[in-house]
Design a protein that fits this description.
Belongs to the bacterial solute-binding protein 5 family. It is a lipid-anchor. Its main location: membrane. By secondary structure, the protein is α+β, with helices and mostly antiparallel strands. It has 2 domains: about 1-180, Periplasmic binding protein-like II (D-Maltodextrin-Binding Protein, domain 2); about 220-435, Dipeptide-binding Protein, domain 3 (Roll). Helix content is about 30%, strand content about 25%. It has 13 helices and 18 strands. The strands form 5 sheets. Strands 10, 11, 12, 13, 14, 15 and 16 form a 7-stranded mixed β-sheet that branches. Strands 3-4-6-5 form a 4-stranded antiparallel β-sheet, with helices on one face. Helix 6 (about 240-245) runs antiparallel to helix 8 and helix 12 (about 390-400) runs antiparallel to helix 13 (about 405-420). The protein is globular and about 65 Å long.
Length: about 450
């Protein structure tokens, strides 16, 4: 279920719901390309310290309010004030409405990277009249092609928004999203005709194709891994974190759990993504149980130690946790697995009340530099232990100056290398391939490379 439809309270995996009802200033297509969104154009100026947006005309919110510069200003200032997006938008110095259809953002530092950020949740514009409504968590008021019709336990129902500015693009009357924790049950729902489509695991591809379903797949910017709480006395030691890094046989996990299409990785960014460090793509040197044992002994744990893995309700993550549990046992680390409900998992990661979580981590949304800020630098949203990468803040600033990824790649790659040397607070296992299956007659769904979903394009025929 969605954590919240209020962007200030939403969770990292909520875009699958938010993208149905909201739109951002800039559109990022499922393929990851930048395009006009609620803003038809934008201009970086003043050494990348300002961005001026020209807004689309004729856009209405679900409650009838009109999109204008004041609405954009209200959302940005509300998001910056508190909640999950406050850190993401902390670099904004001021927001000026230059005209009803023109807004200028001024930043404290050169911030070309914000073009990417404002194509995500931080760029969402909520109807001004709904921003102060506590009911926004369950009754979003955006400009998107659909609006929430019903929110019940285990199911969210959306209906087509007839006032959508590009209504001709939407041919389906609505969407019903049912929530399943078990992957097998979810696939059976599609095979039996109860559902039109579902995300699946790589190991379900053959079963789906044999059933006559259409399968789409492609790399994205998420990875499966272990988030460590470095406030824990043992996990605060870089040698212990490095021992965990070297204890994992990523190629075995990829082959046996993911049919070989969850790419083994020790860095958060997959091959083909601009922030990927090519020199780290060979994971073989990073599987060395003997070295892991040596590092544990140097840290003062020659006989290993005990730790807890918190994991969500999805069976696939529990299976991954069990595989990791078996591998870590080989170097003396005895793992106990604790299963949490989804909302408990989100809360644990945000409040720091966990030891180590095994889960899906979003590394590229809204921008890979935000992942660095959230996980590798002191004060980060998902850094309860206060891990602070030496030299990280300087490299991060360098990676954020420009909007040209060819200029940003070098500092981002250097960050990935330095994290491994420092003992990673997030231990990647493999880069995820998004896979989904649809019944015959359902078309238009694209692989969300950076976690951006376009449901308006879906077509259904008999």
């Amino acid at each position: 279920m969605p954590t919240s439809f209020d962007p200030r309270k939403s969770g990292p995996l909520d875009p699958v719901f938010l993208d149905v009802v909201y739109e951002s200033l800039i559109l990022r297509t499922p393929a990851g390309d930048i395009a006009p969104g609620l803003a038809t154009e934008w201009k970086l100026a003043d050494e990348n310290k300002t961005i001026t947006f020209t807004l689309r005309h004729g856009v209405k919110f679900h409650n009838g309010e009109e999109l204008d510069g004041e609405a954009v200003k209200a959302s940005l200032e509300a998001f910056k004030k508190e909640g999950a997006l406050a850190g993401t938008l902390s670099g904004i110095e001021k927001v000026d409405v230059l005209a009803p259809d023109q807004v200028k953002l001024t930043f404290k530092q050169p911030s070309g990277y914000m073009i990417n950020v404002l194509a995500g949740e931080a760029g969402i514009v909520v109807a001004p009249g709904a921003l102060a409504d506590p009911g926004l968590a369950g009754k979003p008021v955006g400009t998107g092609p659909f609006q929430v019709d019903a929110l019940t336990e285990g199911k969210v129902t959306f209906k087509k928004f007839d006032g959508y500015w590009d209504a001709k693009r939407t041919t389906i009357g609505g969407i019903e999203m049912a929530v399943y924790s078990d992957e097998s049950t979810r696939l059976r729902a599609v095979k039996s005709g109860q559902a039109d489509g579902t995300s699946i695991t790589p190991s379900q591809i053959k079963e789906s194709e044999a059933a006559g379903l259409t399968v789409i797949k492609g790399p994205n910017t998420t990875f499966n891994g272990i988030l460590l709480n470095t406030a824990n006395d043992k996990l605060s030691d870089p040698k212990v974190r490095q021992a965990l890094l070297y204890a994992i046989d990523r190629e075995s996990i990829s082959k046996n759990l993911y049919a070989g299409i969850c790419s083994p990785s020790v860095q958060p960014f997959q091959q083909g993504f601009w922030a990927n460090a090519p020199e780290l793509n060979d994971v073989k040197p990073y599987y060395d149980p003997a070295k892991a044992k040596q590092l544990l002994a140097e840290a003062g744990y020659p006989d290993g130690f005990e730790m807890v893995f918190e994991v969500g309700p999805n069976t696939s993550y529990q299976t991954l946790a069990q595989a990791l549990q078996a591998q870590l046992q080989q170097v003396g680390i005895k793992v106990t697995i604790k299963v949490l409900e989804f909302q408990q998992m989100v809360s644990a990661r945000r409040t720091g009340k966990f030891t180590a979580t095994v889960a899906l981590v979003q590394a590229g949304r809204p921008d890979p530099s935000q992942f660095v800020a959230d996980f590798y630098l002191k004060g980060g949203l998902y850094n309860p232990g206060g891990f602070d990468l030496p030299g990280g803040a300087k490299l991060l600033a360098e990676a954020r100056v420009d909007d040209d990824v060819t200029q940003r790649a070098a500092p981002m790659r250097e960050i990935s290398k330095k994290v491994l040397e420092a003992g990673p607070p997030v231990v990647p296992v493999c880069g995820v391939t998004y896979v989904a299956a649809f019944r015959k007659g359902v078309t238009g769904m694209e692989v969300p490379a950076a976690g951006d979903y376009d449901f308006a394009n879906i077509k259904i025929s008999d």
